[in-house]
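Listing S7. Sequence submitted for prediction.
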Amino acid sequence: MKSYTDQIGNTINLTTSPQRIISLVPSQTELLFDLGLENSIVGITKFCVHPYHFKSTKKIIGGTKKVHYEKIRLLQPDIIIANKEENTKEIIEELQKIAPVWTSDIITLEHNKAMISEFGKIFNSRTEAENMNRKIDFALSDFMRFVANKPIKKVAYFIWKNPYMVAGSDNFINEMLSLNRFQNIYANKSRYPEIELKKIRLEGDPDLVFLSSEPYPFKEEDAFEIGRFTHHAKTVFVDGEMFSWYGSRILKAFEYFKKLHQRLND
């Protein structure tokens, strides 16, 4: 019997390495696949879109905020992988009655590396996890050299409309913005605050407005509406997966960020 403590402080006990995994988080589903665990994954959410073929080869057990408990029970999982932000406390507690639940809480790159290392231990994929973390360290060092002399720019990162919501602090998006030398004008607010457009100049007057591709599908008219409340901000549509997905996605994100900086300088 081995014990593992997850990132919200819960301890799970496993007699063997899990062979039947359910993942409730899109980015963690992608990570499990990249660690070579495709054959062990039996259930995913409808939002787990990477890798693409999973939607036809894996059982869909609902969404991230609303899961189908009976479908999960019938899959007889050895472990369920969840996330504090994506899945509610009530969902996690209910799922603990079915199988051990390991829950991540990712705000920083170090949290992400710790999760990858822990997956390596839990799923007997230590070599794959160590290799992935080495790649992340190398890519991070390379990106930090790339971005070192970039000027700091003030940014507002929008995730929702009606009401307008932005990324504040205490989340992975804010970590990614900081990494890029983008100063989040709403970093003094926690999590994902609602904001009033008419106050955007008073609350920081950003140089850049980022409209994320997820979870809300912003359109050109949204860009125009938001932009007219700023002074001279440049409004940019950005790939939300690159800013909000952790796990192995970060390796693709560094290359995306380089291209984004080049776009901003055009």
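Caption to Listing S7: primary sequence and predicted structure tokens for the chain studied. The chain has two domains: 2-109, 150-265. The mean pLDDT is 97.
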